[in-house]
Write a structure and sequence with these properties.
The complex is a heterodimer of chains A (about 290) and B (about 280). Chain A is mostly helical and about 290 residues long. Chain A has 13 helices and no strands. Chain A starts with a helix and ends with a helix. Chain B folds into two domains: about 55 residues, no CATH class; about 210 residues, MetI-like (MetI-like fold, Orthogonal Bundle). In chain B, α4 packs across α12 and α8 packs antiparallel against α9. The relative contact order of chain B is 0.13. Classes of the chains: A mainly alpha (about 290), B mainly alpha (about 280). At the A-B interface, α1, α4, α5, α6 and α7 of A face α1, α4, α5, α6 and α7 of B.
């Protein structure tokens, strides 16, 4: 069979997917790029060409810079915490103890819980009048009076980060555990014979095996955390006083609440660019790590 | 073998208990709230364990009496099932041929890489044109419209999973069948697709979970019982003026039940999909 025919046939089989992807992703993306040069409203006729005004207005607004800082804080702190707690949990699950299989099975629960249900659950836990957190801390005499965890600028973002971590650290743990189980037993045994302490053993013997899979988890989690919308919308809608407003929430407000489609589109493209830069930087990093670990 | 001291064993068990508590406490509390009488949940000090289990909220939410909380909830449950089901079937119909083609013809692999790269795109980058397009086609607040939009998420993911599935089926098996005179589509039907059945099942489960979990597009593109999904219905409950927190918790338990059961039963397949595919996520 000729290879030209093979390739043609392959393209034919690809075609339905490509057509649908162009219709639901390609065209909307191109259209967003076009919209970003206009002052179009969400409904009604297309707006006027305004050049780069949307971008310059957006980039110079204090809303944007504040939101970028909030998003970065959310992404960096929650992903860092998920990585650390995830690896610690994986090291624990790699030990032998009774009930290990059950505990491992439980790890799938937060991952399987729908994001919106997770956000709703924690919103109830943080409730200022009847929430379990207030009740528990009061009964343990750690606080004197009930607090509005999601209603105070000082605690709202931290409360959201805890919620995100609880759902996502088990996934990191499962990925790290799979990598740990690939570490050959005789290598850890040899390092023991050589007298390596637990920290050196982790740093020099085990970590190289973890580096690759963890990098991948880090990339994907960071990109997702940067795009975060669901839990913030359900728990605080960006409040109080916009202290938990992330970039995706800002785009939503601009394009859909205020119906400024053009300006919202420019902001969405700025977010897309930032996420792409993150992904490219990480891809380079992953290649480097994979090279040094091999 | 490493010898473990007693102190170390105790330490490990203590950590295991702590981890189990961290995972289980919030989930257990969600369930307890759903069966606690409203008075217990509003009591100070809070009553952590209900005096009598009260399952009436489940009955309330699953009843289909008109204009009840149950009617809105069951409508959204049905919408979620329909949308997730349709989107999953459509995604597989696109992913199976495409995944096979890329697996057997690496020359076109770059096209799949492009499709997968769209995973990075924040949904907000597509939302405005999709909104205008759906509105133009009369597909806003419509289960078909939302299922179509969900292909942006489901199709790249399932194609990637199917491609890695086909990669692990030796092409020599197909070649042998074809030498015996079977045509390509006959070969695929009797040899390749049966061998790929487990991967198809895993892809379908992932697709269902992703569609069940989706919130952003559903929030934007649906507005009432005709198409609102479960995630939007729950967010409405959580953000609304519902005074009975137990009712919100009950809706959460019901929405979480299908994916949690799938997660527990299928965990081996899901974990291997997540980790091998940690590569993709």
């Amino acid at each position: 069979m000729s290879s030209t025919w093979m390739t043609t046939r392959a393209w034919l089989l690809m075609l339905p997917l490509l057509v649908v992807m162009v219709a639901v992703i390609g065209w909307p993306l191109v259209d967003t790029v076009g919209l970003a040069f206009t002052d179009a409203k969400l409904v009604g006729t297309g707006g006027n060409f305004v050049g780069l005004d949307n971008y310059t207005n957006m980039l110079s607004s204090s809303n944007f810079s504040r939101t970028l800082v909030t998003t970065t804080l959310f992404a960096v702190i929650s992903v860092a915490a998920e990585m650390v707690i995830g690896v610690l949990a994986a090291l624990l699950l790699n030990q032998e103890f009774r009930g290990r299989a059950v505990l491992r099975a439980l790890m799938i629960l937060p991952w399987a819980l729908p994001t919106v249900v997770n956000a709703t659950l924690w919103r109830l836990i943080y409730n200022p009048e009847y929430g379990a957190l207030n009740a528990a801390l009061t009964q343990l005499h750690l606080i004197d009076a009930y607090r509005s965890w999601l209603g105070e600028p000082g605690t709202a973002l931290a409360a959201l980060i805890v919620t995100d971590c609880w759902k996502n650290f088990p996934l990191v743990a499962l990925i790290a555990l799979a990598a740990l189980q690939a570490v050959p037993r005789d290598i850890t045994a040899a390092s023991l014979v050589d007298g390596a302490g637990p920290f050196n053993r982790f740093r020099f013997v085990i970590l190289p095996y973890l580096a690759g899979p963890l990098m991948v988890a880090l990339v994907l989690r960071t990109i997702e955390a940067f795009k975060v919308f669901d839990i913030i919308w359900v728990m605080t809608r960006g409040g109080p006083a916009n202290t938990t407003r992330t970039l995706s929430i800002l785009v939503y407000q601009e394009a859909f609440s205020f119906q400024r489609a053009g300006s919202g589109a420019s902001l969405a493209l700025i977010v897309t660019l930032l996420v792409t830069l993150l992904a490219v930087a990480y891809a380079a990093l992953v290649r480097k790590t994979a090279g040094s670990a091999a | 073998m490493e010898r473990k001291s007693l102190a170390f064993t105790i330490f490990i068990h203590a950590c295991a208990l702590l981890l189990a508590a961290i995972i289980l406490a919030p989930i257990a509390w969600l369930f307890i709230m759903s069966i606690s009488p409203a008075a217990d949940l509003a009591a100070k000090p809070l009553r952590w364990w209900p005096q009598a289990a009260d399952f009436s909220r489940y009955q309330q939410l699953l009843s289909t009496a008109e204009n009840s909380a149950g009617a809105a909830f069951t409508a959204s449950l049905r919408n979620s099932l329909e949308i997730a089901g349709m989107a999953t079937l459509a995604a597989l119909a696109l992913a199976i041929p495409a995944g096979w083609a890329v697996s057997r013809t690496p020359a076109i692999g770059w096209s799949l890489s492009m499709v997968i790269a769209t995973y990075m795109l924040p949904p907000v980058a597509l939302a405005v044109p999709l909104y205008m397009g759906l509105s133009h086609l009369g597909l806003l607040n419509n289960v078909f419209g939302l299922a179509l939009v969900y292909l942006t998420i489901l199709a790249p993911f399932t194609t990637w999973l199917m491609k890695s599935g086909f990669d692990s089926i030796p092409r020599e098996i197909e070649a042998a069948a074809m030498i015996d005179g079977a045509g390509l589509f006959h070969t695929l039907r009797i040899i390749t697709l049966p061998l790929a059945a487990p991967v198809m099942a895993t892809s379908a489960l992932f697709a269902l979970l992703l569609a069940w979990d989706e919130f952003f597009y559903a929030l934007l593109f649906t507005s009432d019982q005709r198409a609102k999904t479960l995630t939007v219905a729950i967010a409405d409950l959580a953000g609304g003026r519902v005074s009975d927190y137990g009712l919100i918790a009950t809706a959460g338990v019901l929405a979480a039940l299908p994916p949690v059961l799938i997660g527990l039963v299928m965990q081996r397949a899901l974990i291997s999909g997540l980790t091998s595919g940690g590569v993709k996520g």
